[in-house]
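We were asked to recover a plausible sequence for a given structure. The inputs and outputs are reproduced exactly as logged, with field labels preserved.

PROBLEM: sequence recovery
POSITIONS: 164
GIVEN STRUCTURE:
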């Protein structure tokens, strides 16, 4: 597997099942997290904040600044399965939804000045409204994992991200 990736500094490997030992190959664990899933059968309430879907490169750049991550190029806006949401300048919160493999992934959630519980609850509501009848999935750690579990997500496994 390592022969198929660019191996320079900053190279990372997502070990989706937390089974690899890449330390002998010059990698360190960047973080460990837990896969989560929420059944579409569970009811959701309405969203509290005013969420807008990001539609332009300028809006995606604004979203990226709120996330403090400059890794999302404007071509991603052309993907029918990937959507970015932003709550606006009042809270500076956002998240991404990615439909793949029969589920909708919630990722890159950031709360800005908003209550994290509200942002998580709203992300579930927006995802359920945009994708009725589809389970939600993702991975989290720390307080975000606890919030997701409080909203009906269940733990389904471990993952590890390695970085050189």
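RECOVERED SEQUENCE:
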């Amino acid at each position: 597997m390592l022969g198929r990736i660019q191996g320079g500094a900053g190279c990372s490997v997502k070990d989706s099942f937390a089974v690899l030992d890449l330390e002998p190959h010059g990698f360190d664990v960047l973080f460990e997290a837990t896969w989560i899933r929420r059944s579409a059968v569970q009811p959701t309430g309405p969203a509290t904040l005013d969420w807008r879907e990001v539609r332009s490169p300028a809006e995606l750049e604004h979203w990226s600044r709120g996330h403090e991550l400059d890794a999302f190029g404007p071509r991603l806006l052309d993907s029918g399965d990937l959507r970015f949401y932003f709550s606006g300048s009042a809270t500076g919160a956002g998240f991404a939804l990615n439909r793949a493999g029969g589920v909708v992934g919630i990722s890159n959630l950031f709360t800005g000045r908003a209550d994290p519980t509200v942002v998580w609850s709203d992300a579930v509501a927006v995802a359920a409204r945009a994708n009725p009848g589809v389970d939600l999935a993702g991975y989290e750690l720390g307080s975000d994992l606890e919030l997701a579990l409080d909203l009906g997500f269940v733990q389904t496994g471990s993952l590890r991200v390695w970085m050189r």
